[in-house]
Design a protein that fits this description.
Its EC number is 2.6.1.16. GO terms for molecular function: carbohydrate derivative binding; glutamine-fructose-6-phosphate transaminase (isomerizing) activity. The chain is an alpha/beta fold. The chain contains 14 helices and ten strands. The two termini are about 30 Å apart. Bound molecules: 6-O-phosphono-alpha-D-glucopyranose.
Length: about 375
């Protein structure tokens, strides 16, 4: 087993460090020589895209968190309503799946019971099902109408890392491709985003190279009972993933909040020293996040900000800042999640826990 870990202490660490290559792989498998996205095995064309009236993105756990980012990209570029839901909720609630619905299922393993059940129900209702999965030949891959494989390579650690970042890349590529088909974005915009996506692996590597700083922060929160993650827009979706990572492997009670909800209850939880990881990567929401950080800091929170290098203003309202390389707003989550993965990993191992096999959790939930 130690040989399989390739010199890393655990699989999660190895998989975190595999992300630059994993993301590159996801991209390269679907780009042709001219730099265009190729989805020719996915039988969805302009007339179908013009015919449907909504998209549902359904998943569980980390895959659901990736799905929310997919929704943002699809709404932005394709201009179509996209609804995201957790598979175990969606299947038992009233939904509006019909033949005018594209259902996109996101699943690393392709075996999650609730997600598979949604697939079968949706097909019965006449919807087309597109799966985004990592495991070739999995149940979801076999039963879906179309499959986009993420090609992240095997993910062993229970806490998902490279599956998450490659799922986002996959969903963004689907969104871009469909948007171009639908003539909702220009070729110039399309190629510009693809070019920026190609820069992500080296930006992720840059964050990984600065790992030592995460150690300092981990030391400061390792004894905490609670931790909160704040963000707005895509940073809120990212906060959900950051809090899931921390809670599942360190057992620190972690929750994510939309920063705009602070005043509606959350702020009552802030005590002296409460760690609050505040993500501020969205330029249009930056000032709002700075004022949220100021509010929690004034109440004694230990604020860790995650933001781009030029946003020096965060230094005034936080105890620690993790800077990430600049990128297009919508692409920033793929980079900003890396320090949160490293933080969860470091806190878990400082607590002497089994990082790869957290208690009570399974890699794939194949029963309800
Ligand atoms: C479990 C795993 C998570 C994963 C979720 C959904 O909870 O521990 O890492 O995100 O299942 O799994 P899937 O294979 O469908 O992505």
């Amino acid at each position: 087993e130690s040989a399989e870990k390739g010199g890393y202490d655990c699989f999660m660490e190895k998989e975190i460090f595999e992300q630059p290559d994993g993301i590159k792989h996801t991209l390269e498998r679907r780009l042709d020589e001219s730099g265009k996205i190729v989805l020719d095995d996915i039988h969805i064309d302009k007339s179908y895209l013009d015919y449907i009236n909504k998209i549902y993105i359904i998943a569980c756990g980390t895959a659901y968190n990736a799905g929310i980012l997919g929704k943002t990209a699809m709404q932005k570029w394709m201009g179509i309503p996209v609804i995201t839901d957790i598979a175990s909720e969606f299947r038992y609630n009233q939904n509006f799946v019909d033949e005018k619905t594209l259902v996109i299922l996101v699943s690393q393993s392709g075996e999650t019971a609730d997600t598979l059940a949604v697939l079968r129900d949706s097909k019965k209702k006449g919807a087309r099902v597109l799966a985004v999965t990592n495991v070739v030949g999995s149940s979801i891959a076999r039963e879906a109408d179309d499959v986009f494989y993420t090609w992240a390579g095997p993910e062993i650690a229970v806490a998902s890392t490279k599956a998450y970042t490659t799922q986002i890349v996959a969903l963004y590529m689907i969104a871009l491709n469909f948007a171009l088909e639908m003539e909702k974005i220009s070729e110039a915009e399309y190629f510009d985003i693809i070019d920026k996506m190609k820069e992500i692996p080296s930006k992720v590597q840059e964050v990984l190279d600065n790992r030592d700083y995460i150690n300092v922060i981990a030391d400061e929160i390792v004894g905490s009972e609670h931790a909160f993650f704040l963000g707005r827009g895509v940073d809120y979706a990212l906060a959900m993933e950051g809090s899931l990572k921390l809670k599942e492997i360190s057992y620190i009670h972690a929750e994510a909040f939309a920063a705009g909800e602070l005043k509606h209850g959350t702020i009552a939880l802030v005590e002296d020293g409460t760690p609050i990881i505040s993500i501020a990567t969205q330029q249009n929401l930056f000032e709002k996040m700075v004022s949220n950080m100021e509010e929690v800091r004034a109440r004694g929170a230990y604020v860790v900000a995650i933001s781009q290098k030029h946003n020096k203003e965060v230094e005034k309202v936080s105890n620690r800042v993790i800077y990430i390389p600049d990128s297009e707003d919508i692409l920033s989550p793929i980079i900003a999640v890396i320090p949160m993965q490293l933080l969860a990993l470091t806190v878990s191992s400082k607590r002497g826990l089994d990082v790869d096999k957290p208690r009570n959790l399974a890699k794939s939930v194949t029963v309800e």
